[in-house]
Design goal:
The complex is a heterodimer. By secondary structure, chain A is an all-alpha fold. Helix content of chain A is about 65%, strand content about 0%. In chain A, helix 7 runs antiparallel to helix 11 and helix 13 runs parallel beside helix 16. Chain A is globular. By secondary structure, chain B is α+β, with helices and mostly antiparallel strands. Helices cover about 40% and strands about 20% of the residues of chain B. Chain B contains 5 helices and 10 strands, in the order H-H-H-E-E-E-H-E-E-E-E-E-E-E-H. In chain B, the strands form 3 sheets. A 5-stranded mixed sheet of chain B has the order 3-2-1-5-8. Chain B has a 3-stranded mixed sheet with strand order 4-10-9. In chain B, helix 2 runs antiparallel to helix 3. The chains are: A mainly alpha, B alpha+beta. The interface between A and B is large, with 103 and 108 residues.
């Protein structure tokens, strides 16, 4: 092993790290530092996006307009989505990839460290640009995160700023994805064959391919919006021979794989956590890999299920309905494999496991509503209602977000070298798990009762469940404040973590000391370590 | 302790907030069965999906719960580390979901095919979406009018209006002039828009379609002959600032009442048309 010293205090944690803020953080090419930067950035964005959600839920607590103008409300829903998806979820996953992929495959760093730095430092500028639209004349973008024309073209000064911000995020994502692919393809330690890689690496590999394939499509769509707005083209204007629905096809050709970009790494994290705390290898490792690849492939041929109401030909609707239903098969394989992993295990319920188990239950609920939404004739009743809002929040919040939180609780001792306050983390879990259901479950009822999404005010028959949902939102939002406090105090000190941290942990990341030294796997790990870790 | 206190305070606030509107509580849980020839079929498709999901949930969640309860380390469970793979199990849990999907897809496809068949309609109305109102144009009948949010709702929905929405009749779901259709007749709507994309939906009619500028979309419904009434919905595609304030209201009248209404509208429209044509 390259580095076997144990840390004595916080400064030694990063022995070998350059001193000085500029050298250490701005110019860094170290995968761990860049991972930390990504994660901190994502954390800030989660709280910003969360604050916007609080504004939305406060306004929707009661019928009538109490707090904000409808236009500002529309900005809130639009910016909440953009900030959460592009600022929270995606950077959080890239941060976890940066931290864990080199550690898990026995590589010294990411393959392209300088590009890694660049792809991170694009993000703060992209978001400064995006968030500064709040101070422009017409306010922040208010046409929805899907940026549908012609509505988005009615935006004022915020329009070009948001478009340029999306371009920057896209460039950052593409570079991050290239880095992951090149690292996984070229930097694996000798003996770390593809089918010995941890599931997190596998899901990220497939995610990275999805990113490379679809981010340029989004960039194209956005570029066409820009030329339509400023240079007199008519890609999406019927008056000039274009078609607004073509934008939706292009957008969702990006947008649907994007959904899987947000969830596939979560599958990976859950596939790491469940075996550890079940003390049993992941069930059906290979079928998990193939299921992930199938989901990745299917994600490219289902996009128009987001637009069943645009008036597609019958054959198109049938095709997209059937392909969408097919996704239930590989997803089902995954859920069954996870269940089988716990079966005949020896389970303990540390915070990462709690989050992983609630992921299993609540993501599956999101899957059920997804299956219902796939049925085109029924979708005419669900489309653009709160039923859809409930669906995608179930897969994104107790789905992706819980996996991110679970992943942080899983690997935090490895990063910081300290154990964290387990009791407080369990409080965080229970409050989150209860309030997330109070928040989102009633939204199914609201949607079925006919409440459209993206409205600042509603008919009085929707008042009751909206009040419940808002209470859940405030509870969920408050409960999240535990998380940064807990991370902060864990980084500052606490019980020393062992290298293995968890009794059942397996894999190369647990073979380096805790905290992981600044430079790890400078020499390739011994083959025995790889074989031990890969005993699926 | 402090956290417990905060939790209790939040719960107290929750109970208080829920008690207030309880007087006229709706607590609707499910989709409407609707009032058209297709709405019942769509509702039962929805319920069929729901019960399949419940059945799968009972199985999967049951499996997980048994694992969680039975195989705890604290209860002395010893992991079966040899249990890593079973081709048979994996084939089974691939094939069975496929079969379930086929069972679900067949009726869904049948319903979809029926929904897309708009032949044989007896009335066509062109519906144009505007920011933020609807225009209804009875083709070849000489009747055309706008349908906008009612005055009462519009006053109450202003920011900090001070008007309690519960005192307004059909708050945000009331218009000055609803779309009037005859019951028992197959009505075809031709949807388009004058500015941005809107979407036209009434839950009881069980159909929703986008109104897209430059394109014409088609939908149809047939209100059951014994179900005259007023059915309310609203725009469901984000269309700008007042997206939440452009209701869709459909009044289904018996064929006789509809004829009377149409004649009245036509009579009212004629002098206006003459006036408009006079130089």
């Amino acid at each position: 092993m390259a580095n076997s010293h144990t840390a004595h205090d916080a400064h030694d944690d990063h022995h070998g790290a350059p001193q000085g803020f500029m050298q250490r953080w701005v110019l860094t090419t170290n995968h761990k530092d860049i991972g930390t930067l990504y994660l901190v950035f994502a954390g800030i964005m989660f709280f910003l996006g969360g604050a916007m959600a609080m504004v939305i839920r406060a306004e929707l607590f009661q019928p009538g307009l109490q707090f904000v103008d409808p236009q500002f409300f529309n900005s809130m829903t639009t910016m909440h989505a953009l900030v959460m998806i592009f600022g929270g979820m995606m950077p959080a996953w890239v941060g976890l990839a940066n931290w864990m992929i080199p550690l898990q495959i026995g590589a010294a760093d990411m393959a392209l460290p300088r590009m890694n730095n660049f792809s991170f430092w694009l993000m703060p500028f992209a978001f400064i640009l995006l968030l500064s639209t709040f101070f422009t004349g017409g306010g922040a973008p208010a046409g929805g995160w899907t940026l549908y024309p012609p509505l988005v073209l009615q935006g004022g000064d915020s329009f070009p700023m948001a478009m340029f911000a999306v371009h920057m995020m896209g460039a950052s994502s593409i570079m991050g994805a290239i880095n992951v692919i090149v690292t996984l393809m070229n930097m694996r330690a000798p003996g770390m064959t593809l089918l010995r890689m941890p599931l997190f690496c596998w899901t990220w590999l497939i995610t990275a391919y999805l990113l490379i394939l679809v981010m340029p499509v989004l960039a194209g769509a956005v570029t066409m919006l820009i030329t339509d707005h400023f240079f007199g083209t008519s890609f999406f204007s019927a008056a000039g021979g274009g078609d607004p629905v073509m934008y939706q096809h292009i957008f969702w050709f990006f947008g649907h794989p994007e959904v899987y970009i947000l969830i596939l790494p979560a599958f990976g994290v859950v596939s790491e956590i469940l075996p550890t705390f079940s003390r049993k290898p992941l069930f059906g490792y290979e079928s998990m890999v193939y299921a992930t690849a199938s989901i990745g492939f299917l994600s490219f041929i289902v996009w128009a299920h987001h637009m069943f109401t645009v008036g597609m030909p019958l054959a198109g609707q049938l095709f997209f309905m059937l392909t969408t239903m097919l996704i239930a098969v590989p997803t089902g394989v995954k859920v069954f494999n996870w269940s089988a992993t716990m079966w005949k295990g020896s389970l303990t319920f540390e915070p990462p496991m709690l989050f992983a188990i609630s992921f299993l239950f609540l993501f599956t609920i999101g899957g059920f509503s997804g299956l219902m939404l796939a049925i085109a004739p029924a979708d005419f009743q669900y489309h653009d209602t709160y039923f859809v809002v409930a669906h995608f929040h179930y897969v994104l919040v107790p789905g992706s977000l819980f996996a991110i939180i679970g992943g942080v609780y899983y690997w935090l001792p490895k990063w910081s070298g300290h154990m964290y306050n387990m009791t407080l983390a369990k409080w965080h879990f229970w409050l989150s798990a209860i309030f997330v259901n109070v928040l989102f479950f009633p939204q199914h009822f609201l949607g079925l009762a006919g409440m459209p999404r993206r409205i600042p005010d509603y008919a009085t028959q929707f008042a009751d469940w909206n009040a419940v949902s808002s209470i859940g939102a405030f509870g969920f939002g408050l409960a999240q404040l535990i998380f940064p406090y807990l991370i902060w105090s864990c980084v500052r000190g606490g019980e020393k973590a062992t290298a293995h941290v968890w009794e059942g942990s397996h894999g190369l990341e647990w073979e380096v000391p805790s905290p992981a030294p600044y430079h790890s796997w400078s020499e390739a790990p011994a083959i025995e370590l790889i074989e031990r870790g890969a005993a699926h | 302790m402090l956290r417990t206190h905060r939790l209790l305070t939040a719960l107290g606030a929750a109970v208080a907030a829920l008690a207030a509107p309880l007087a006229h509580a709706e607590w609707t849980l499910n989709m409407t069965t609707g009032v058209t020839s297709m709405s019942g079929e769509i509702y039962s498709l929805h319920m069929k999906m729901f019960w399949w999901c419940v059945a799968i949930a009972v199985f999967v969640f049951g499996w997980m719960i048994v694992s969680i309860v039975k195989f705890q380390k604290s209860k002395g469970a010893v992991p079966d580390t040899a249990m890593v793979h079973s081709t048979k199990a994996e084939i089974i849990w691939t094939i069975i979901p496929v079969l379930i999907l086929v069972v679900l897809a067949v009726p869904a496809a049948k319903t979809l095919i029926k929904l897309e068949d708009s032949r044989g309609s007896t009335l066509s109305v062109k519906v144009t979406g505007y920011q933020w109102k609807w225009q209804y144009d009875y083709l070849d009948q000489g009747v055309s009018y706008f349908s906008t949010l009612s005055r009462d709702s519009n006053a109450a929905r202003q920011l900090q209006s001070g008007i309690d929405p519960t005192t307004v009749n059909d708050y945000l779901r009331d218009v000055d002039y609803p779309l009037v259709v005859p019951t028992g007749a197959k009505v075809r709507l031709l949807l388009t828009s004058a500015d941005v994309i809107h979407a036209w939906w009434v839950p009881e009619l069980a159909i929703k379609k986008d109104a897209i500028p430059g394109f014409v979309n088609e939908l149809w419904f047939q209100v059951d002959a014994d179900k005259p009434g007023i059915y309310r919905g609203q725009c469901v595609e984000l269309c700008g600032r007042d997206h939440g304030f452009m209701p869709v209201v459909v009044e289904a009248k018996s064929p006789e009442d509809y004829k009377a209404w149409l004649a009245e509208r036509q009579a009212a429209a004629k002098p206006a048309a003459i006036a408009a044509n006079t130089p």
